[in-house]
Amino acid sequence: MAFHSAKALKERGYEVWLATPKINQKLLYEIGKELINVAVCPALPYVSEIEMHWIKAFDKVVVNVYPMVATAAIISKVRPIIWWIHEPSEKYDNFYSTLRCWYHKYASLKDFSSAYIVAVSNIAKRNFEKYYPGRINSILTFGIPDEADNLPIAVNNGKLVFAIIGSVKELKGQQIFVEAALRILDEHYSAEFVIIGNYSKDEYSKELQDSILNISEIKLTGNLTRTELKATFNGIDVVVCASLEETMSLTIAEGMMHGKICITTDATGIADYISNGKNGFVCQVGSVESLYKTMKWVLDHRDELAVIKENARKTYEKHFTLDVLADRFEKAFEAIEEN
Question: What digits encode the pLDDT tens for the residues 193-236?
């Protein structure tokens, strides 16, 4: 998200630096191709005011994610900042409880009195305001580059391919996806199901693999590169997010960008942008029955899918392009200048 934001602002004519505690060579290469400056500062999450003297060279600063809490507090004293919150609830991650113990002196709102704090979604806002009530100034949704191929939107009359994308773990709900898929296959529908994402040797991954053993219509691909994933999107008809919670869903936004049918749960931030049956579908979180019924509807109403795909693409263009993201940042910049 930081990379995409830097790219969006650079395209608006800003000089942008991306400061990070560490970076791998592959990502550094991708950022370098966009001619975006990178500063590697290993002490960044734990800096003191003395170590942040170089930040005064910048006019505005965007601090990304809650684990940068100490940095956000320090920089806000010397420069206008936007602090961008993305974190899941305590139920699925321990960011808030752990970091509030580590950085107990930043548990008070007074340390961020001059910060303009935004959340990537209403779910992220709710999670943050559990600890800092009423402190989110606005919602600032992410944006992604437009990588869609200029292909006509058409309904595939062969097998419909459903895909769930993301690292295999309980939070992502792959087992819910598999159980719904098995019910679809039991009814002899012409469909295939693909699970894309890294998996490990943990119990959840093992059980998932065992549940699809010898079922040719359900495939587990493992991790794919960005290039491989983009190529794979051409063969996907329906993108599914079965997450138990997700402050935003990058995969659903990418699905909309590519003009795919998109199904997400009501525990994702992106569900706020979906009107059921119009530009995608929202099913009940944690419910195999709800996901099964939604996928079954898609299979039973193929003649209605073209319009939904077209509306999904329009939703991307309205809410998730880099140009729209730059507009949101500039509006936030105006707010911090007024502040």
Answer: 999 999 988 999 999 999 999 999 999 998 888 788 888 888 99
Residues 99 and 200 grouped into a single domain: no
| Torsion angle, alpha carbons of 274, 225, 207, 239, to 10 | 20
* 277/215 same-domain check: yes
Q: Which residues pair with 206 in a beta bridge?
A: none
For 279, phi then psi, to 5°, come to -125, 10
* Structure-block tokens of residue 183: 């019910």
pTM of full prediction above 0.85: yes
Tell me the DSSP string of 36-65: -EEEE-TTGGG--TGGGGGGGG-S-EEEES
Residues 110 and 243 in one domain: no
How many other CB atoms sit within 10 Å of the CB of residue 231? 12
**Beta strand pairing status for 138-139 and 281-283?**
unpaired
SS (H, E, C) 187-213: CCCCEEEEEECCCCCCHHHHHHHHHCC
